[in-house]
Amino acid sequence: MGNKAAFALFGMSGLLILFATYVSFLPDLIESKAEVNVKASKGDILTYLSRAEDWSEWLFHPDVKSSSSWRIMNAGKTSGEGSVLKWFSESIGDGGLEIKKIKDDLIVFERISDNGAFEDRGYLYLIPTDSSTTIKLIDSLSIKSNVIARYDAQDDSYIQHIDSINLEVLKRLKMNLEVQK
Predict the structure, then answer these.
(1) Phi, psi of 62 (to 5 degrees)
(2) Which of 26, 65, 122, 130 has the fewest CB atoms found within 10 Å of its own CB?
(3) What would the pLDDT profile of 115-125 be if each residue is shown by its tens digit?
(4) CA angle 144-88-28, nearest 5°?
C-alpha cells in the first residue's frame, strides 16, 4: 500500500510541475493600443485629464455608472500627479486610478482593482495636429494573477477585444472633451 501512495504523490507532484511550467510560458502582460482624434487643444485636454475626478465621466460605461451600487470617491490631490479616483461597484468590482505623471505631451496613470483581478499602467500621448489633437492610449495590462486570462491572451482576438474596449473609452473621452468646448 505504501508504494501506491508514493506513486500518487510523485505523480501529482509531476503534474503540478508540468502545470506550473506551462503557466510560466503564458503571457503575463499584454499591451493594448487605441487612438482617437479630438477637436480640442492639447492644453485643454491636459487640463481635463489632470483631474482624476473627471475620469469618472468617461472611463466607465454608462450602464455601470447608472447602477444603484455605483459610488466614487476622490483621494490625494484634487489635480495633477497624485490625484486619485476610487470606485465601488457590484458589477465591475472596486478599484482605484492614480495619475502618476503629467508631462507636456504625456499622462501616465495606474489602475488596480481591489480584488487584484487586474492592474494596468496606461500612457496617454497627446499629439497636436493642425486643428485638433490625437490622443493615443497605450495600455499595459498585467494579467499575471489570472491564469484564465493568461491562457486566453495567447489568442489575438483577446487583445483585439481589449483594443476595441479601449477605443470605446477614448470615444467617450472625445465626446466629453468636444462637448466642453
Answers:
(1) -55, -35
(2) 130
(3) 666 678 899 99
(4) 10
